[in-house]
Amino acid sequence: MDQSIYRSHVLICTGTGCVSSGSKKIKTVLEDELAEHDLSKEIKIVETGCHGFCEKGPIMIVYPEGVFYCQLKEEDVAEIVEEHFLKGRIVDRLLFKEPISEESIPAYQDIEFYKKQRRIVLSNCGRIDPESIEEYIASGGYEAAGKAITEMTPEEVIQEVKDSGLRGRGGGGFPTGLKWDFTRKAAGDKKYIICNADEGDPGAFMDRSLLEGDPHAVIEGMIIAAYAIGADEGYVYVRAEYPLAITRLQKAIEQAEELGLLGDNLFGSDFSFDLHIKKGAGAFVCGEETALMASIEGKRGMPRPKPPFPANKGLWGKPTNINNVETFGNVPYIINEGAEAFSSVGTENSSGTKVFALTGKINNTGLVEVPMGITLREIVFDIGGGLTSGKKFKAVQTGGPSGGCITSDYLDLPIDYDSLKEIGAMMGSGGMVVMDEGTCMVDVAKFFLDFTQSESCGKCTPCREGTKRMLEILNRICEGEGKEGDIELLLELGEHIKDTALCGLGQTAPNPVLSTIKYFRNEYEAHIKDKKCPAGVCQGLAAAYVIDEETCVGCGMCAKVCPVDAISGKPKESYQIDGDICISCGACAQKCPVDAISQG
Amino acid sequence: MKSLEELRELRSKVQKDLEMRSNSERPKIIIGMGTCGIAAGARKILKAVMKEIDKRGLDVIVTQTGCIGMCEKEPLLDVKMPGKDRVTYGNLTPADVKMIIVEHVINGNVVEDLAIARFDEGGN
């Protein structure tokens, strides 16, 4: 059949999450199956970026119906082809099922996970082929760049962005328009624009997903920004650990160059713009703007004191503007739809949406875009589908190592830059790690500090030495060697590091410790005074497990899994655990079919 | 890219392909493709529909459904115009498809000779 249009489009997610759960193989099998049934010319396969629902990958959406299949296996593909594509019957068992109602939901717009989202930055992610500039243009792409360059002055562009209230999505929340204005007004002819794609927070993957799913949107945002500040050259600084993002971005840049959307005299104007990719080695500190610029210049990635700010003295000493991936991703929408449309979403001082990477003990792990001002409760329980463990919600860690914890007391707090700052957490780049009662907050603080400590570049003493000492104290506490006064010492050290470290990395490094002490001081005290880890995580402190004789049915499952042979007993009689041998690993409690084992 | 107009021209050229993924109200042709339908030749009908739509450059959703019970009248094809009742046509040949598309989808007139049922979907 000779035709150019297809009766159906099958979108297969090829974001990093789905690729690692096998979506590439699914695609190959699908191609074979379609060919076998002579359907190749009727059904088009499109590889897309992240749909956000990484937990349920590999994901496939079938249009025009918009049917959402998830957790696919290779052997499922034949059934989809035979049932759905040939006979038009939706394969119910492969549909997404709501965790609570267990109801199958065919159309993805109706899944709770998507219902409360507001997709502006991610609107193309999972909907278009990121490797096709035509698809981007078909959905309105590069219209904003054309409009800005041919119909607006740079000042008008800056004013529009100022009016929109867009704030830096990298975490700091600095007004974007104001930042552009500084760079525009800085003296000098040669100026640079840089996109910071050095996402390094544990649990964060927003920037990667956007680059993979819609690279042209980031490029378009950069073109508009470059025009506004008067830059003719730009860099995307992206970590080498993001190979798919780099490949897609490279391809997108080449396609844009081919169509004359990058290069000389864009849209017939005097404005020219070239864009390069700089691969970073994946050092956390290189996400700090001055260290990032040093790295582009070919030097070791270490920060320098500010001022002078990059707006005045940046890359190779020239005025430079640095924004985060997601910030650029918002810009085309603002130019196309106007500042008012943008600021109608969100809260008064935090307009628009924010993309969060939802991870941890939650049912629907994934990427979500929500209007600012949404409550944590809505994110965790409505979009996230609640906690996996069935245990009680304890806290959400936001902003990675630079951030803090939001406790259950603040579940109904509208989330925006200022409200989070007030409670000692921060927006950060948007990583959200959900924790339940089984999480030890001292251990969490230790995890993040361990991360910053090993990522410290070592240039300034407070960060190099201070975080090391703090980590030593935390290690001691977790091993049961905590002393009176440790908490005060941690607070004192933390405050000093905050005040004296050279760059943002050092200044925020103590945050996880300070924030957990603030909200979970009793857990620290339990570790130090009672020599107990309330969550039963810290091995040195955890109480031994005991078997309830009444409940035990004598099946002996516990004895089989115990790695240290601490459990003894006879079948059909109650088993016992030797508290002196028990290492509190919890393997027995997990295996016990009648829940007879608990920590004493 | 020499001008914004050039971009817009390119856009209108490539846009058609993406419309399938939007939720806008468009005419819909639904083909009954249960085992019975396929046995009765629904695939030929489907191909004829695709060919006709492509030839005329129409903006129509083509989708399929399983057996709706009227196996005897297979192959079946439903036309659902925005805001109108869903009309089922039966006992079709590929030649009928052309007539249905021209008369019903383009001109908005139900082909009464071929229609076998109407569903009132409340104008949805």
TrEMBL record, chain A:
Keyword match Iron: yes
Which NCBIfam families does the record cross-reference, listed alphabetically? PRK13596.1 (NF010120)
**Phylogenetic placement of the source organism:** Bacteria, Bacillati, Bacillota, Clostridia, Halanaerobiales
What does the record list as coiled-coil region(s)? none
State the InterPro entries in the record. 4Fe4S_Fe-S-bd (IPR017896), 4Fe4S_Fe_S_CS (IPR017900), NADH-UbQ_OxRdtase_51kDa_CS (IPR001949), Nuo51_FMN-bd (IPR011538), Nuo51_FMN-bd_sf (IPR037225), Nuop51_4Fe4S-bd (IPR019575), Nuop51_4Fe4S-bd_sf (IPR037207), Thioredoxin-like_sf (IPR036249)
The answer, when asked if 4Fe-4S is one of the entry's keywords, is: yes
Q: Which domain of life is it from?
A: Bacteria
State what protein this is by name: NADH-quinone oxidoreductase subunit NuoF
Q: Which Pfam families match?
A: 2Fe-2S_thioredx, Complex1_51K, Fer4_21, NADH_4Fe-4S
Q: Which organism is it from?
A: Iocasia fonsfrigidae
What keyword terms does UniProt attach to this protein? 4Fe-4S, Iron, Iron-sulfur, Metal-binding
List, alphabetically, the SUPFAM superfamilies matched: 4Fe-4S ferredoxins (SSF54862), Nqo1 FMN-binding domain-like (SSF142019), Nqo1 middle domain-like (SSF142984), Nqo1C-terminal domain-like (SSF140490), Thioredoxin-like (SSF52833)
- One Gene Ontology MF term: NADH dehydrogenase (ubiquinone) activity
User: Which PANTHER family does the record cross-reference, listed alphabetically?
Assistant: NADH-QUINONE OXIDOREDUCTASE SUBUNIT F (PTHR43578:SF3)
What the record says about family reads:
Belongs to the complex I 51 kDa subunit family.
Pinpoint the 4Fe-4S ferredoxin-type domain residues. Answer: 543-572, 573-600
TrEMBL record, chain B:
InterPro entries, per database record:
Thioredoxin-like_sf
Q: Which domain of life is it from?
A: Bacteria
Q: Which UniProt keywords apply?
A: Iron, Iron-sulfur, Metal-binding
Identify the Gene3D superfamilies for this entry.
Glutaredoxin
Tell me the GO molecular function terms: iron-sulfur cluster binding; metal ion binding
Q: What is this protein called?
A: (2Fe-2S) ferredoxin domain-containing protein
Q: Which organism is it from?
A: Iocasia fonsfrigidae
